[in-house]
Design a protein that fits this description.
By secondary structure, this protein is α/β, with parallel strands linked by helices. The strands form four sheets. A seven-stranded mixed β-sheet has the order 1-9-8-5-4-2-3, sandwiched between helices. Strands 12-13-14 form a three-stranded antiparallel β-sheet. It folds into two domains: 9-105 and 113-249, Type I PLP-dependent aspartate aminotransferase-like (Major domain) (Aspartate Aminotransferase, domain 2, 3-Layer(aba) Sandwich), CATH 3.40.640; 252-375, Aspartate Aminotransferase, domain 1, CATH 3.90.1150.10. Helices cover 39% and strands 15% of the residues. α4 packs across α8. The chain is globular, with a radius of gyration of 21 Å.
């Protein structure tokens, strides 16, 4: 049996090696390493795939979030509502810009931000909402956009884990994740569903003025070369990474299908097991399974992970500590117990290997090993 990994990038690469190698070589031959034709070509392909007017490539997903907030011209002290159950970058950029992160709890089934909690958290200082499409499933965006419109707030989608997912509105219409709010952000970190071979990110919007502003911000605040009208940053997607992403974007839907097939296998193996809660698939979103995350009940999670490791099966905890309990983000407004769903998830979730190259033998070994431990 092939070695099991959380993400098998090498096997995925070998399947597309000729196209990837050619794309990289074309960039080297042209010596157009920054903002070259490969970046423009990928940008256009991604705009077409997402059905969005503007894609602004940048250096990483964290920068995408930061540039978005800079372009909205928010001021120190302005409040931004987001979830406590997410990767640190979501709150990190809020703090770096001297904005005030306002954390709320999540839905116990989908792990995504709770719209009712958003409404309770809004104050006169609130400027924006940052829903996180966690683990590959879109947050309840129709409700979130209604709340934002009612309260004159911006919505910045943290779409770093759900690129390619579709969201279905109550009227039957459909939009791609990241294109519903005023701005969408994504990461192309290698382990993402659409990942490059280094760092990379992008911002999406249908707003012409916001797009113009964000293009200025990512390029040192320049409107004309060497004329800086705004405070900006240096955040660019390099051409080699863009060439890689162009090849992989053409397969993104195929990759999502393979992830769903693996998730279906897990679901079937673990169904009706009272000690394991399989991912709940929100009816409005087609899950793209960036992670396959179980909620355990009456299970020694640490021992489970150690047992799986003894069988050469990796497992991870996303995330062991909620944002409101992270040392760098301790805030007298929040204390343990304030976000019971988030805290429960941090204590009980475990993620199994999830990627495009999982085969039947590997999935069988993983599921049988989990059940052997659970049922002993």
């Amino acid at each position: 049996m092939k070695k099991i990994q959380m993400v098998d990038l090498r096997s995925q690469y070998l399947d597309i090696k000729n196209e990837i190698d050619k794309g990289i070589q074309d960039v080297i031959d042209a010596c157009a390493f920054i903002n070259g034709p490969a970046v423009s070509a990928f940008q256009k392909d991604l705009e077409q795939y997402l059905g969005v007017k503007h894609v602004i490539p940048c250096a990483n997903g964290t920068d995408a979030l930061q540039v978005s907030m800079m372009a909205l011209n928010m001021k120190p002290g302005d409040e931004v509502i987001t979830t406590s159950f997410t990767f640190i970058a979501t709150a990190e950029v809020i703090a770096l810009l001297q904005l005030t992160p306002v954390l709320v709890d999540v839905d116990p089934d989908t792990f995504n931000i709770d719209p009712k909690a958003i409404e309770r958290a809004i104050t006169p200082k609130t400027r924006a909402i940052v829903p996180v499409h966690l683990f590959g499933q879109v947050a309840p965006m129709e409700e979130i956009m209604e709340i934002a419109k009612k309260n004159n707030l911006y919505v910045i989608e943290d779409n770093c884990q759900a690129i390619g997912s579709d969201y279905y509105f109550s009227d039957g219409s459909c939009k791609k994740a990241g294109t519903i709010g005023h701005i969408g952000c994504t990461s192309f970190f290698p382990s993402k569903n659409l990942g490059c071979y280094g760092d990379g990110g992008a911002i999406f919007t249908n707003d012409d003025e916001l797009a113009k502003q964000m293009r200025v911000v990512v390029n040192h605040g320049m409107t004309v070369r060497y004329y800086h009208d705004y405070v900006g940053v240096n955040s660019r997607l390099d051409s080699i990474q863009a060439a890689i992403l162009k090849v992989k974007l053409a397969r993104l839907d195929e990759y999502a299908s393979k992830r769903r097939t693996a998730a279906d296998f897990y679901d079937e193996a673990f169904k009706n097991n009272t000690k394991l809660k399989t991912p709940v698939r929100f009816s409005r979103s087609n899950h793209v399974f960036h992670q396959y995350t179980l909620v355990t009940h009456d299970v020694d999670r640490k021992a489970l992970i150690e047992f799986l490791a003894s069988r050469d099966i990796p497992a991870m905890i996303y995330y062991p500590v909620p944002l409101h309990m992270q040392k760098a983000y301790l805030d007298p407004r929040y204390k343990p117990g304030d976000f019971p769903v988030t805290e429960h998830l941090c204590e009980t979730v475990v993620s199994l290997p999830m990627h495009t190259e999982l085969d039947h033998e590997q999935l069988t070994h993983i599921t049988q090993s989990v059940l052997e431990f659970i049922n002993r």
